[in-house]
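Morning. Coffee machine broken again, so started the prediction first thing and wrote up yesterday's gels while waiting. Chain of 360 residues, entered below exactly as on the submission form.
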Amino acid sequence: MTFREEDLEAAEAAHYRSLTAVEADGDERAVEAALRPRTLDEVVGQVRVRDQLGLVLEAARRRGRAPDHVLLSGPPGLGKTTLAMIIASEMSAPLRLTSGPAITHAGDLAAILSGMNEGDVLFVDEIHRMSRPAEEMLYMAMEDFRVDVVIGKGPGATAIPLEIPPFTLVGATTRAGLLPGPLRDRFGFTAHLEFYEPDELDTIIQRSARLLDVHALPEGTAEIASRSRGTPRIANRLLRRVRDYAQVRADGLVTLEVAHDALDLYEVDQLGLDRLDRAVLDVLCRRFGGGPVGVATLAVAVGEERETVEEVAEPFLVRNGFLARTPRGRIATPAAWQHLGLTPPPALNLPDGDAPLFDD
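Came back before lunch.
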Protein backbone atom coordinates (compact mmCIF):
# COMPACT_ATOMS: atom_id res chain seq x y z
CA MET A 1 0.00 0.00 0.00
CA THR A 2 1.54 3.34 -1.08
CA PHE A 3 0.69 6.82 0.19
CA ARG A 4 1.36 10.22 -1.36
CA GLU A 5 3.84 12.45 0.51
CA GLU A 6 1.14 14.97 1.44
CA ASP A 7 -1.00 12.15 2.84
CA LEU A 8 1.86 11.00 5.05
CA GLU A 9 2.45 14.58 6.25
CA ALA A 10 -1.22 15.00 7.09
CA ALA A 11 -1.27 11.68 8.93
CA GLU A 12 1.85 12.62 10.87
CA ALA A 13 0.29 15.96 11.85
CA ALA A 14 -2.84 14.22 13.12
CA HIS A 15 -0.63 11.71 14.90
CA TYR A 16 1.26 14.55 16.62
CA ARG A 17 -1.99 16.15 17.82
CA SER A 18 -3.11 12.86 19.39
CA LEU A 19 0.35 12.31 20.85
CA THR A 20 0.31 15.74 22.48
CA ALA A 21 -2.95 14.85 24.18
CA VAL A 22 -1.50 11.55 25.36
CA GLU A 23 1.59 13.26 26.78
CA ALA A 24 -0.61 15.68 28.68
CA ASP A 25 -1.99 12.72 30.59
CA GLY A 26 1.55 11.76 31.62
CA ASP A 27 1.29 8.13 30.58
CA GLU A 28 4.82 7.13 29.49
CA ARG A 29 3.70 3.78 28.09
CA ALA A 30 1.01 5.47 26.02
CA VAL A 31 3.62 7.89 24.66
CA GLU A 32 5.84 4.99 23.64
CA ALA A 33 2.91 3.29 21.92
CA ALA A 34 2.02 6.50 20.09
CA LEU A 35 5.53 6.65 18.59
CA ARG A 36 5.03 3.33 16.82
CA PRO A 37 4.68 3.36 13.02
CA ARG A 38 1.10 2.83 11.88
CA THR A 39 1.74 1.40 8.39
CA LEU A 40 4.45 -0.60 6.64
CA ASP A 41 5.40 2.53 4.69
CA GLU A 42 6.33 4.25 7.97
CA VAL A 43 8.58 1.41 9.13
CA VAL A 44 12.27 2.33 9.01
CA GLY A 45 14.77 -0.46 8.39
CA GLN A 46 13.99 -4.19 8.25
CA VAL A 47 13.71 -3.78 4.48
CA ARG A 48 13.56 -7.47 3.61
CA VAL A 49 10.99 -8.30 6.30
CA ARG A 50 8.91 -5.28 5.34
CA ASP A 51 8.87 -6.20 1.65
CA GLN A 52 8.10 -9.87 2.31
CA LEU A 53 5.33 -9.07 4.78
CA GLY A 54 3.85 -6.45 2.47
CA LEU A 55 3.62 -9.06 -0.29
CA VAL A 56 1.88 -11.54 2.03
CA LEU A 57 -0.68 -8.95 3.14
CA GLU A 58 -1.37 -7.61 -0.35
CA ALA A 59 -1.92 -11.12 -1.71
CA ALA A 60 -4.34 -11.87 1.14
CA ARG A 61 -6.26 -8.66 0.46
CA ARG A 62 -6.62 -9.51 -3.21
CA ARG A 63 -7.91 -12.99 -2.37
CA GLY A 64 -10.25 -11.56 0.23
CA ARG A 65 -8.95 -13.99 2.86
CA ALA A 66 -7.11 -13.78 6.15
CA PRO A 67 -3.29 -13.82 5.76
CA ASP A 68 -1.25 -16.86 6.72
CA HIS A 69 -0.09 -17.13 10.31
CA VAL A 70 3.01 -15.03 10.99
CA LEU A 71 5.94 -15.77 13.31
CA LEU A 72 8.21 -12.86 14.27
CA SER A 73 11.46 -13.57 16.10
CA GLY A 74 14.33 -11.43 17.30
CA PRO A 75 15.71 -9.61 20.34
CA PRO A 76 13.42 -7.38 22.44
CA GLY A 77 12.62 -3.87 21.28
CA LEU A 78 13.00 -4.34 17.53
CA GLY A 79 9.33 -3.95 16.60
CA LYS A 80 7.59 -7.33 16.79
CA THR A 81 4.54 -5.89 18.57
CA THR A 82 4.53 -2.93 16.20
CA LEU A 83 4.47 -5.23 13.17
CA ALA A 84 1.57 -7.18 14.67
CA MET A 85 -0.38 -3.94 15.04
CA ILE A 86 0.49 -2.97 11.48
CA ILE A 87 -0.72 -6.33 10.16
CA ALA A 88 -4.10 -5.76 11.80
CA SER A 89 -4.22 -2.17 10.54
CA GLU A 90 -3.28 -3.09 6.97
CA MET A 91 -5.98 -5.79 6.94
CA SER A 92 -8.53 -3.47 8.62
CA ALA A 93 -9.06 -6.17 11.24
CA PRO A 94 -9.40 -6.06 15.03
CA LEU A 95 -6.29 -6.99 17.01
CA ARG A 96 -6.48 -9.16 20.11
CA LEU A 97 -3.40 -9.23 22.32
CA THR A 98 -2.23 -11.81 24.83
CA SER A 99 1.03 -13.44 25.89
CA GLY A 100 2.39 -16.95 26.25
CA PRO A 101 2.81 -16.81 30.05
CA ALA A 102 -0.85 -15.75 30.40
CA ILE A 103 -2.06 -18.92 28.67
CA THR A 104 -1.39 -21.48 31.37
CA HIS A 105 -4.16 -23.95 30.47
CA ALA A 106 -5.81 -25.14 27.28
CA GLY A 107 -9.05 -23.64 28.59
CA ASP A 108 -7.45 -20.17 28.57
CA LEU A 109 -6.70 -20.51 24.88
CA ALA A 110 -10.14 -21.97 24.14
CA ALA A 111 -11.77 -18.96 25.79
CA ILE A 112 -9.73 -16.58 23.63
CA LEU A 113 -10.35 -18.47 20.40
CA SER A 114 -14.07 -18.81 21.02
CA GLY A 115 -14.41 -15.04 20.95
CA MET A 116 -12.60 -14.62 17.60
CA ASN A 117 -14.41 -13.31 14.56
CA GLU A 118 -13.54 -13.98 10.94
CA GLY A 119 -10.39 -12.13 9.87
CA ASP A 120 -9.34 -11.16 13.40
CA VAL A 121 -5.63 -10.97 14.21
CA LEU A 122 -4.51 -12.69 17.42
CA PHE A 123 -1.12 -11.55 18.71
CA VAL A 124 0.64 -13.85 21.19
CA ASP A 125 3.79 -12.31 22.63
CA GLU A 126 6.52 -14.62 23.98
CA ILE A 127 4.68 -17.52 22.37
CA HIS A 128 7.47 -19.94 23.33
CA ARG A 129 6.37 -19.65 26.98
CA MET A 130 2.87 -21.02 26.33
CA SER A 131 1.92 -24.17 28.25
CA ARG A 132 2.24 -27.47 26.43
CA PRO A 133 -1.52 -28.37 26.55
CA ALA A 134 -2.32 -24.97 25.05
CA GLU A 135 0.29 -25.51 22.33
CA GLU A 136 -1.30 -28.79 21.34
CA MET A 137 -4.71 -27.14 21.12
CA LEU A 138 -3.20 -24.35 19.04
CA TYR A 139 -1.96 -26.84 16.43
CA MET A 140 -5.51 -27.76 15.45
CA ALA A 141 -6.75 -24.18 15.69
CA MET A 142 -4.07 -22.93 13.30
CA GLU A 143 -4.44 -25.73 10.79
CA ASP A 144 -8.12 -26.69 10.85
CA PHE A 145 -9.67 -23.66 12.59
CA ARG A 146 -11.21 -25.98 15.12
CA VAL A 147 -10.57 -26.95 18.74
CA ASP A 148 -11.93 -29.75 20.89
CA VAL A 149 -13.22 -28.60 24.25
CA VAL A 150 -13.22 -31.41 26.81
CA ILE A 151 -16.15 -31.40 29.24
CA GLY A 152 -15.86 -33.47 32.39
CA LYS A 153 -13.12 -35.76 33.65
CA GLY A 154 -12.26 -39.41 33.52
CA PRO A 155 -14.25 -41.98 31.52
CA GLY A 156 -17.23 -39.66 31.32
CA ALA A 157 -15.31 -36.82 29.65
CA THR A 158 -16.74 -35.62 26.36
CA ALA A 159 -14.92 -33.71 23.62
CA ILE A 160 -17.05 -31.06 21.97
CA PRO A 161 -15.69 -29.72 18.64
CA LEU A 162 -15.71 -25.93 18.43
CA GLU A 163 -15.45 -24.33 14.98
CA ILE A 164 -13.40 -21.14 14.79
CA PRO A 165 -13.71 -18.54 12.00
CA PRO A 166 -10.53 -18.16 9.91
CA PHE A 167 -8.12 -15.85 11.73
CA THR A 168 -4.46 -14.86 11.60
CA LEU A 169 -2.14 -15.75 14.45
CA VAL A 170 0.89 -13.51 14.90
CA GLY A 171 3.40 -15.05 17.28
CA ALA A 172 6.39 -13.16 18.67
CA THR A 173 9.37 -14.75 20.36
CA THR A 174 12.81 -13.74 21.51
CA ARG A 175 13.91 -17.39 21.54
CA ALA A 176 12.73 -19.12 18.39
CA GLY A 177 14.78 -22.21 19.22
CA LEU A 178 12.45 -23.00 22.13
CA LEU A 179 9.41 -23.32 19.86
CA PRO A 180 8.38 -26.93 19.17
CA GLY A 181 8.86 -27.97 15.55
CA PRO A 182 5.16 -28.75 14.95
CA LEU A 183 4.17 -25.27 16.10
CA ARG A 184 6.89 -23.50 14.13
CA ASP A 185 6.00 -25.39 10.95
CA ARG A 186 2.38 -24.22 11.07
CA PHE A 187 3.33 -20.59 10.49
CA GLY A 188 3.00 -19.67 6.83
CA PHE A 189 5.46 -16.78 7.11
CA THR A 190 8.41 -16.44 9.48
CA ALA A 191 10.65 -13.41 9.85
CA HIS A 192 13.68 -12.66 11.97
CA LEU A 193 14.21 -9.02 12.92
CA GLU A 194 17.80 -7.76 12.90
CA PHE A 195 19.39 -4.99 14.93
CA TYR A 196 19.18 -1.56 13.31
CA GLU A 197 22.05 0.42 11.84
CA PRO A 198 22.90 3.81 13.42
CA ASP A 199 21.60 5.76 10.39
CA GLU A 200 18.27 3.90 10.58
CA LEU A 201 18.01 4.68 14.28
CA ASP A 202 18.84 8.31 13.53
CA THR A 203 15.88 8.45 11.14
CA ILE A 204 13.63 6.91 13.80
CA ILE A 205 14.82 9.39 16.43
CA GLN A 206 14.27 12.36 14.13
CA ARG A 207 10.71 11.18 13.44
CA SER A 208 10.05 10.68 17.16
CA ALA A 209 11.53 14.10 17.92
CA ARG A 210 9.07 15.70 15.50
CA LEU A 211 6.16 13.85 17.08
CA LEU A 212 7.29 14.82 20.58
CA ASP A 213 7.97 18.43 19.48
CA VAL A 214 11.61 18.10 20.53
CA HIS A 215 13.97 20.55 18.86
CA ALA A 216 17.09 18.57 17.98
CA LEU A 217 20.08 19.13 15.73
CA PRO A 218 21.26 16.29 13.47
CA GLU A 219 24.43 15.95 15.55
CA GLY A 220 22.35 15.45 18.69
CA THR A 221 20.12 12.76 17.22
CA ALA A 222 23.13 11.00 15.70
CA GLU A 223 24.77 10.87 19.14
CA ILE A 224 21.65 9.28 20.63
CA ALA A 225 21.47 6.78 17.77
CA SER A 226 25.09 5.72 18.26
CA ARG A 227 24.36 4.76 21.88
CA SER A 228 21.03 3.00 21.30
CA ARG A 229 22.34 -0.57 20.92
CA GLY A 230 20.68 -1.01 17.54
CA THR A 231 17.24 -1.01 19.18
CA PRO A 232 14.40 1.47 18.41
CA ARG A 233 12.81 1.03 21.84
CA ILE A 234 16.04 2.10 23.52
CA ALA A 235 16.49 4.94 21.03
CA ASN A 236 13.07 6.40 21.84
CA ARG A 237 13.65 5.99 25.57
CA LEU A 238 17.00 7.77 25.40
CA LEU A 239 15.46 10.55 23.30
CA ARG A 240 12.91 11.24 26.03
CA ARG A 241 15.61 11.34 28.69
CA VAL A 242 17.78 13.68 26.61
CA ARG A 243 14.70 15.85 26.05
CA ASP A 244 14.23 16.08 29.83
CA TYR A 245 17.87 17.07 30.29
CA ALA A 246 17.65 19.69 27.55
CA GLN A 247 14.52 21.24 29.07
CA VAL A 248 15.88 21.37 32.63
CA ARG A 249 19.61 22.04 32.20
CA ALA A 250 19.82 23.60 28.74
CA ASP A 251 17.71 25.82 26.50
CA GLY A 252 15.56 22.93 25.21
CA LEU A 253 17.66 22.31 22.09
CA VAL A 254 19.23 18.85 21.75
CA THR A 255 22.76 19.50 20.53
CA LEU A 256 25.74 17.15 20.42
CA GLU A 257 27.02 18.50 23.74
CA VAL A 258 23.60 18.27 25.41
CA ALA A 259 23.07 14.69 24.19
CA HIS A 260 26.57 13.71 25.31
CA ASP A 261 26.15 15.20 28.80
CA ALA A 262 22.64 13.76 29.23
CA LEU A 263 23.61 10.23 28.25
CA ASP A 264 26.68 10.38 30.49
CA LEU A 265 24.38 11.38 33.34
CA TYR A 266 22.17 8.37 32.66
CA GLU A 267 25.26 6.10 32.57
CA VAL A 268 25.08 5.20 28.89
CA ASP A 269 28.59 5.33 27.46
CA GLN A 270 29.69 6.09 23.91
CA LEU A 271 29.35 2.47 22.81
CA GLY A 272 25.89 2.05 24.33
CA LEU A 273 26.96 0.06 27.41
CA ASP A 274 24.84 0.80 30.46
CA ARG A 275 25.39 0.19 34.16
CA LEU A 276 24.60 -3.54 33.98
CA ASP A 277 26.86 -4.11 30.98
CA ARG A 278 29.80 -2.42 32.65
CA ALA A 279 29.12 -4.21 35.93
CA VAL A 280 29.30 -7.58 34.17
CA LEU A 281 32.56 -6.69 32.45
CA ASP A 282 34.03 -5.11 35.58
CA VAL A 283 33.29 -8.16 37.74
CA LEU A 284 34.50 -10.53 35.04
CA CYS A 285 37.81 -8.68 34.59
CA ARG A 286 38.63 -7.37 38.07
CA ARG A 287 37.27 -10.13 40.28
CA PHE A 288 37.68 -13.22 38.11
CA GLY A 289 40.69 -12.26 36.00
CA GLY A 290 38.76 -12.35 32.74
CA GLY A 291 37.20 -15.78 33.24
CA PRO A 292 36.09 -18.34 32.36
CA VAL A 293 33.15 -17.86 34.72
CA GLY A 294 29.76 -19.56 34.75
CA VAL A 295 26.81 -17.28 34.08
CA ALA A 296 25.17 -18.22 37.40
CA THR A 297 28.28 -17.12 39.32
CA LEU A 298 28.48 -13.97 37.23
CA ALA A 299 24.85 -13.11 37.98
CA VAL A 300 25.35 -13.50 41.73
CA ALA A 301 28.45 -11.32 41.58
CA VAL A 302 26.58 -8.41 39.95
CA GLY A 303 23.47 -8.88 42.10
CA GLU A 304 21.10 -9.76 39.25
CA GLU A 305 19.05 -12.77 38.23
CA ARG A 306 20.69 -15.23 35.85
CA GLU A 307 18.02 -14.60 33.22
CA THR A 308 18.69 -10.85 33.36
CA VAL A 309 22.39 -11.27 32.68
CA GLU A 310 21.80 -13.96 30.06
CA GLU A 311 19.01 -12.23 28.12
CA VAL A 312 19.64 -8.51 28.67
CA ALA A 313 23.38 -7.94 28.97
CA GLU A 314 25.04 -10.89 27.25
CA PRO A 315 23.58 -10.59 23.70
CA PHE A 316 24.82 -7.02 23.32
CA LEU A 317 28.22 -7.75 24.87
CA VAL A 318 28.74 -10.82 22.68
CA ARG A 319 27.56 -9.06 19.53
CA ASN A 320 30.03 -6.22 20.13
CA GLY A 321 32.95 -8.47 20.92
CA PHE A 322 33.32 -7.75 24.65
CA LEU A 323 32.28 -11.18 25.88
CA ALA A 324 32.67 -14.72 24.59
CA ARG A 325 30.70 -17.81 25.50
CA THR A 326 32.78 -20.97 25.79
CA PRO A 327 32.13 -24.48 27.12
CA ARG A 328 34.18 -23.46 30.15
CA GLY A 329 32.16 -20.32 30.89
CA ARG A 330 32.11 -16.63 29.97
CA ILE A 331 35.41 -14.91 29.20
CA ALA A 332 36.29 -11.27 28.64
CA THR A 333 37.87 -10.40 25.31
CA PRO A 334 40.77 -7.95 24.87
CA ALA A 335 38.21 -5.33 23.77
CA ALA A 336 36.53 -5.56 27.19
CA TRP A 337 39.80 -4.96 29.02
CA GLN A 338 40.59 -2.06 26.74
CA HIS A 339 37.14 -0.51 27.19
CA LEU A 340 37.57 -0.59 30.98
CA GLY A 341 41.06 0.86 30.72
CA LEU A 342 42.67 -2.28 32.14
CA THR A 343 45.63 -4.35 31.04
CA PRO A 344 44.71 -7.97 30.31
CA PRO A 345 46.71 -10.65 32.13
CA PRO A 346 48.91 -13.08 30.22
CA ALA A 347 46.92 -15.78 28.44
CA LEU A 348 46.26 -18.86 30.55
CA ASN A 349 47.28 -22.07 28.76
CA LEU A 350 44.71 -24.41 30.28
CA PRO A 351 44.15 -27.85 28.73
CA ASP A 352 40.83 -28.20 26.94
CA GLY A 353 39.88 -31.10 29.18
CA ASP A 354 40.07 -29.12 32.42
CA ALA A 355 36.86 -28.54 34.31
CA PRO A 356 35.45 -25.01 34.28
CA LEU A 357 36.51 -22.77 37.12
CA PHE A 358 32.91 -22.03 38.04
CA ASP A 359 29.73 -24.00 37.44
CA ASP A 360 27.56 -22.69 34.62
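Confidence is low (pLDDT under 50) at residues 1-26, 348-360. Going to sketch it on the whiteboard this afternoon.
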